[in-house]
Design brief:
Strand order of the largest sheet: 1-2-3-4
Number of helices: 10
Helix content: 40-55%
Radius of gyration: 22 Å
Order of helices and strands: HHHHHHHEEEEHHEEEEEEH
Largest sheet: 4 strands, antiparallel
Distance between the termini: 27 Å
């Protein structure tokens, strides 16, 4: 999730666990710090844009390593606050603020390696967009109320309510995702498609409009479904995944990493003389967050000495009006 959501979650957890045992601003501040720490891995340069992508949300997001780190971190916090007698309570607050960060991240589609060092599988439920105000606002309102009231009973109650509402919202997004997936699978049967892989994820900033991505026979299909649609059918557009191009390529580490990290939701395509690999999970046709130039289209193709990330920005002037109108159930074709 975005940094603001993680800060708000960490602060809310810190306040909920510490209650009136310490000043509410201390609990909120240290909770916010703990909620931010796992994302400091973004400052690490692994020497290649693809490695930077797939190695984000790795060790610093692993539940095992965060649990070990929480012990000395909580001891430091208790010492700095002069509250060593409450070390165990500070440990509980800091541990929860740390581990809820990757658990929340795992609800997005990106991929969070929760089980390191035992497994490097990138977990991604994909039921919530990386920025969703309906998740973040209850945490902010509850946390600010608690701070303004200086730990008063109503402020602490508001903080707890904010946590409950935001967590319940995550449950709602998962239920909505499963509902849309059932509709998508029925639509595949109607259209005679045999899905090798199916992904249902929310579009930007909401949980009403969902994107359906289907990998099938060297192609991928993209469609959209709003919970407010009158027609319970997902209309799909077909695109070439680039299987023929992939067969021409020599083994390339970056291609293998993206293929694995994306769980097979990727495409290979040519842009001028460059061969690009794109993670299809984040974005929509034709704009994606993660696209990388990995080779030169010669005969045979030659891998690049250094991978280059290609920025493919959406047309917001067309995209945002379409997003909101489509979310409200208008049967509009997507902007291409």
């Amino acid at each position: 999730m975005d940094s603001l959501s993680q800060i708000a979650l960490g602060a809310a957890v810190g306040v909920a666990v510490m209650g009136r045992r310490t000043a509410v601003w201390k609990a909120a501040a240290w909770g916010a710090v703990a909620g931010t720490l796992p994302d400091l891995d973004v400052i690490i340069d692994h020497g290649d844009p693809i490695r930077n992508m797939v190695l984000h949300r790795a060790e610093t997001h692993a539940l095992f390593w965060l649990t070990l780190f929480s012990l000395p971190f909580a001891a430091l916090v208790a010492r700095l606050n002069g509250e060593w007698s409450m070390w165990r309570r500070w440990w509980l607050a800091m541990w929860l603020a740390l581990v809820t960060h990757p658990l929340l991240d795992a609800m997005t589609v990106y991929g969070t390696q929760l089980a390191l060092p035992f497994s490097n599988h990138p977990y991604g439920v994909g039921s919530v967009f990386i920025i969703d105000p309906l998740y973040t606002v209850p945490l902010l309102v509850g946390g600010i109320w608690a701070l303004v009231s200086r730990g008063g009973r109503r402020g602490l109650a508001a903080n707890a309510v904010g946590l409950v509402i935001s967590t319940a919202y995550l449950g709602w997004t998962f239920a909505a995702q499963q509902h849309v997936e059932s509709i998508a699978r029925a639509s595949l049967v109607q259209q005679g498609l045999q899905a090798e892989r199916l992904l249902v994820s929310p579009t930007a900033f909401n949980s009403l409009l969902w994107r359906v991505l289907v990998m099938e026979g060297g192609n991928y299909h993209e469609g959209f479904y709003s919970l407010l649609d009158a027609d319970r059918t997902v209309r799909l557009d077909r695109f070439d995944q680039g299987a023929a191009l992939e067969r021409e390529l020599p083994p390339i580490d970056g291609v293998q990493r993206i293929a694995s990290f994306s769980h097979g939701f990727y495409k290979l395509h040519q842009d001028g003389s460059s061969v690009l690999i794109t993670d299809l999970r984040m974005g929509q046709e034709p704009a994606y967050v993660f696209a990388f130039a990995v080779a030169q289209r010669l005969s045979p193709p030659v891998p690049l000495a250094r991978t280059e990330q290609i920025a493919v920005r959406p047309d917001l002037a067309r995209g945002l009006p379409w997003l909101w109108r489509r979310a409200l159930g208008e049967p509009l074709p997507p902007p291409r």
